[in-house]
Design brief:
The chain is mainly alpha-helical. The protein has 7 helices and 2 strands; from the N terminus they run αααββαααα.
């Protein structure tokens, strides 16, 4: 019984290295507004809940490991978990960047709001968009998809003492391309709005140089941008969450 308990505890700790590292960066779970102790308790609870299913998978890599090999295994599992969590965080970083660009396009970049995922203040428009997307993770039950993805990662990325840095870089590059292309789709109405409005203002300024058209039109640009945000916010979040959900299910 003592040997069995020792092996189970060791295997559970190996699981905790990947699961805890992943949840530390994963959107929703890894928000800076979630206290560190809460994150730790959630990671431990999820690890213990998944241990009966995943311990047999980990046991294959723990057949009489040497201390140095065990240390390398723990380090590799931490890096694997950080990679998975970082890939998820990339999507919300792209959405945050999109929100900052939207705020600049509709002349609201000076109105700062509370940060959601990060610690630095950002425009209120970006804060609202990121907060809504973070809430939708739990409202759409995507946190269960995150847990399913963690379980499936043990088949896609088996427990080994060597972390494949080349594979990690390829995944980061591909995810960056997907996430920022998704962010471009989300923010495309505001890009078109800004191009049309600035072209019209520039044309009016050339025709009537005596009147400061740009400063006179700023309130109307802000009002038009807010109206566009009100009308398109639902579609923006739907497009983003569908893209994030597709990544969670297919990797």
């Amino acid at each position: 019984m003592n040997a069995m308990g020792h092996e189970f505890v060791l295997a559970s700790f190996v699981l905790f290295c990947r699961i805890g590292s992943c949840l530390m960066l994963m959107p929703g779970f890894g928000s800076s507004r979630v206290p560190l102790r809460v994150k730790l308790f959630v990671a431990v609870a999820i690890t213990l809940a998944l241990s009966p299913f995943l311990v047999p998978v980990v046991d294959k890599a723990l057949l009489d490991p040497a201390p140095l090999q065990l240390l390398q295994l723990l380090f590799s599992e931490c890096l694997t978990g950080l990679l998975i969590g970082f890939l998820g965080r990339i999507f919300f970083s792209a959405l945050e960047t999109c929100g900052i660009v939207i705020a600049q396009l509709i002349e609201l970049s000076g109105v700062l709001g509370s940060p959601i995922q990060e610690t630095e203040p950002m425009p209120a428009v970006a804060s609202i968009v990121v907060l809504a997307a973070t809430m939708l993770i739990f409202l759409m039950d995507l946190h269960w998809e995150i847990l399913r993805g963690i379980v499936a990662s043990y088949n896609a990325l088996p427990v080994t003492s060597r972390f494949d840095f080349q594979f990690g870089l390829v995944q980061v590059t591909d995810t960056l391309a997907k996430a920022f292309l998704l962010g471009l789709r989300v923010g495309s109405p505001f890009i078109i709005f800004s191009l049309v409005v600035n072209f019209a203002i520039g044309l009016a300024s050339k025709m009537i140089p005596q009147i400061p058209v740009y400063f006179m039109m700023t309130p109307f640009v802000v009002a038009g941008g807010l109206l566009l945000l009100y009308e398109s916010c639902r579609q923006m979040l739907e497009i983003f969450m569908l893209g994030f959900q597709a990544w969670l299910r297919t990797g």
